[in-house]
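seq as requested:
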Amino acid sequence: MKTDVLSGVWSSLPNSALILDQENLVVSINPMAEQFINISEKKIKGNNIEENLFFNFSLSETLTKVRTSNSKVFMTSVKVTLSNYSVFDCNIQFSPIIDFFNYVLIIIDVRDIDNRIGLYSKINDTKKSFSGMTEMLSHEIKNPLAGIIGAAQLLSMKLSKRDTELTDLIVEESRRIENLLKNFEKFDHPLIAKKTSENIHDILSKAKRISSYSLASNMKIIEVYDPSLPNVWGNFDQLLQVFLNLLKNAAEASTKKIGVIEIRTFFELGIRVKNSNGENVPVPLTIEIKDNGSGFPSEILSTAFEPFVSGKKNGTGLGLALVSQIINEHNGWINLESYPGSTVVTVSLPVAREESN
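struct tokens:
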């Protein structure tokens, strides 16, 4: 009975927990640690912990201190890096295990996920309504947009088939803008749109192609994709708008003649977001967009996704606000980390329904 209770406690711990032997080899990890590290207990057992987790402090010195003093060590706000290069802000507790010589229990409290999701929820709860302004903008944009479409179609009649790729793109993107404006007019209401199973790499590739012609023509865009990723559950046009906005911001932040943008995709277990029904929905499909630009102003970093907040001289502050709302409607979450010379935007989205069963 006692063994069953202890096993149940180990499986029910809300934080990631690992047990190391005297040689710093993994003896056991609980289910939360399996999700966090994205590895099974069977596979990690017997490995040196630093083969799968990397710390911004000397782990060996800390473990030696725990063993020699036979006392607990608690560390706050340390960086833990996973093998897929994801970095998390954590609190870590080291405890010697009584009756097991030089064995150490490590409990990892991943503060980063909670803080970022909490901040994201707060941003979405405090959005400002500006429907009157958006209706006016929409009306003013639609008129010249119709002229652009007509001009592109007339121009295409005089071009060879090979040269009509750009005019076709103009017409296609103008039609998409018309559809986006319909949603934009209702910015203070949910962006209700049909969601289907979509290949996230198709969306990203199109965003890159469009950006390369215009928004980020002066940027070198590097794609580092995980081809094994399942489909995302979402709306193609809305997600395309998200990544076009993010690529545009990355390009505008560049202070170099040829800047660099890296788009990376990977699968990350352990992150869940509450949907409108209060259910915890896993969002393992992760997209990172990293640039080497000037960085986001630190004084407005925490409010970057609110309407009218912008770090640009002539910015409206609507781009990231719309991005935030679209991701929220997709039951996903978005995070922005920025330092001088580097900005990373991380978007996490749910797997398509038929693939999550």
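Residues 125-131, 313-317 have pLDDT under 50 and may be disordered.
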